Amino acid sequence: MNFIEVIKSIILGIVEGITEWLPISSTGHMILVNELIRNTGFTASDLYLYVIQLGAILAVVTLYFRKLNPFSPSKTKSEKSDTWQMWFKVVIACLPAAVIGLLLDPIMEKLENWEVVSATLIIYGIAFIILENRPRKTLVRDMNGMTYKTALLIGMFQVLSIIPGTSRSGSTILGAMIVGCSREIAAEFSFFLAIPVMFGVSLLKILKYGLVMSGGDAAVLLIGMAVAYAVSMLAIKFLVNFVKSHDFKPFGVYRIILGLVVIAYFLVF
Question: What's the pTM value of the predicted model, to 2 decimals?
Answer without folding.
Answer: 0.90
